[in-house]
Amino acid sequence: MQSLRLIHITPELPPTIGGIADYTSILSRRLVEVSDGAIQPLLVRAGWKKGEAIDAEFPAKDLAGQCSAKSLANTISKLAGQTENKAVVLLEYSGYGYAKRGAPMWLLRGLQKVCEKDDIPLVTMFHELYANGKPWSSAFWMSPLQRYVAARLAKLSNAVVTNREQSAQWLQKYVSDDKPLHVQPVFSNVGEPESVPPFEEREPYAVVFGGEGMKQRLYSEWEDSIDSFLQEVGIEKIIDIGGTDKTVQKLERFPVETVGIQLASAIGEYMKNAQLGLIDYPLDRLTKSGVFSAYMAYGLNICVRAETGDPAPLKEGVHFMRFQATHPAKFKNLGVKAFEFYQNHVGSFYSAKLFKGILSRESSGVKNSKLMKSNE
Hints:
The chain is 36% helix and 18% strand. With 376 residues, the protein is of the alpha/beta class. It is globular. The two termini are 25 Å apart.
């Protein structure tokens, strides 16, 4: 492919611990690898919060805390003008990363100036679209403006990627037929082993990994039936990784070992040796969960505490099971299918090849005339 400068905009970068910070760093690295160096990333941190000094392996500009359309537009124009190669903007979008209330009008205005008026191609990865909430919450009142910003960004973009089918259906209303729209699940940010131990070689423990909100839902709604299931399949304890919610104390009858925040390498060791991964997450959002992706990447048998829903393209009973519908005899081989799905449809190399194809088309000026979904 032709050499191009990738102006990669993100709300956060390492050393910040967070899904999008890791996603941006890993994707940038993989894009260089799959393009044999033709893609040359330059990172722009533009979140509404100021952060620590950026720790990145690529050149980076720090606009954090400015929330200025003019500053963003000037930065993009300057970076694009410094190279003889084609410049393309890749935006990692989550509204709350760029504005306290989740509706970054400044970001939209800045991108309109350079991507619409100056004709610099924009590719947007939508990690989030908009929030919903109770009438007394700010999310309820801000949701219409959040939807407006997301819709306008979709219209402005030359290509759109998102992490779940339901988000793609909403975005499709705002993406013209001559622009590609892809669905691509998020990849693991705590390692991607090329092979994993079989179930029989793993140790009889389950892991719980993720944010405190997810853990609070899981532990506060813990039922005796979950204890019974874990005991029936031979799980002897739970290892809780990351920030630990106090509701874990409610599990008086089941041993829980809390190990706290760990390096990615240590997290990988816990997962590689575990038999089971536990998560409380809506089924229709599993493909946007970095925790679920990490469980798949390490070939864990995955049990989800969730109500019914459409987890497409994942399949219940094949890639995961719900506690509410789990029969112990069926769960042992789930990890094999989950690992295969990750390798063939989710991993960072697979994702980078998708983005490379999009960026290659934009750098050559070739337009795609039909809707495309990467997991069809």
